[in-house]
Amino acid sequence: MIARLIAVVALGVALAAAPASAQQTAQRYGLPPLWPAPNAGLTEPRGNPQAGLEVVRGIEGLVGGACVNCHGLQGAADGSGAFPRLDGQHAWYLYKQLRDYASGERAHAVMTPIARVLTDRQMQDVAAWYAAQAEIVEGPSGEFDLRVRQLGGSIAATGAPDRGVIACAQCHGMQGEGAGPAIPTLVGQYAPYTALQLHLWKRGERRNGPLGVMAQVAAGMTDEEIEAVAAYYAALAPAPR
């Protein structure tokens, strides 16, 4: 089973520029595709960034819950790691997360009620606004022990095959840039946020990823490796995406 998952993920990454081919590959292995089926209601968002900016600033019904309050106007958040940075993230990924929050597939005490207020168009617009902030380039978001970063880099590059831990680079790219619309960018993401998500995957509290790969990967990681991988990606300087 592990070998089959590795093969599918590797092929999916190789075909990231051709969603239709990736769907055919996944179907060949009897697994769901990384990209949504045409009738799934989750086509590539075509949002309007300027309309998204108005939603980010706050609309009726989002009292105290405007995106800008936690994620900032340009998506860099406040640097604490309590909130993820969204600038330059893939639009489809952001859109899907909002859909998942609204449906309850991804549970969150704050984000779920906010997402349920938004229309589908507003979700697409918000995703488009934050994805459009890709030109913002900042330095590394934290200082980390060299040994910790080396451990994180090792897991990112090669994984731990004996424990079913696939190399992060297979899906998230060599520099954490993400590969395909369903795979998020990790480069420059705040370490506390990345680590928290890995712990949620490991505990089975987050389950909205493609092919169930993240749950399997996180389950095989030690707490030390989780913190190290998060530190490694946080210390990479974001580049134009």
Oligomer: single chain
Spatial shape: globular
CATH architecture of the largest domain: Orthogonal Bundle
- The CATH superfamily of the largest domain turns out to be Cytochrome c-like domain
Give the SSE string.
Answer: HHHHHHHHHHHH
Main sheet record: none
Provide the structure class: mainly alpha
CATH class of the largest domain: Mainly Alpha
Number of domains: 3
Care to describe what's here?
This protein has helices at residues 2-14, 19-28, 49-57, 67-71, 91-103, 111-117, 120-131, 146-158, 169-172, 191-203, 213-219, 223-235. The chain is globular, with a radius of gyration of 17 Å. 49% of the residues lie in helices and 0% in strands. It is mostly helical. Helix 1 runs antiparallel to helix 2, helix 8 (146-158) crosses helix 12 and helix 10 (191-203) packs antiparallel against helix 12. It is built from twelve helices and no strands. The chain has three domains: 2-37, no CATH class; 49-135, Orthogonal Bundle (Cytochrome Bc1 Complex, Chain D, domain 2); 146-235, Cytochrome Bc1 Complex, Chain D, domain 2 (Orthogonal Bundle), CATH 1.10.760.10. The model is unreliable at 1-40 (pLDDT under 50). The longest helix is centred in the N-terminal third of the chain and has 13 residues, at 2-14. The two termini are 34 Å apart. Pfam families: Cytochrom_C. It is found in: Periplasm. Keywords: Electron transport, Heme, Iron, Metal-binding, Periplasm, Signal, Transport.
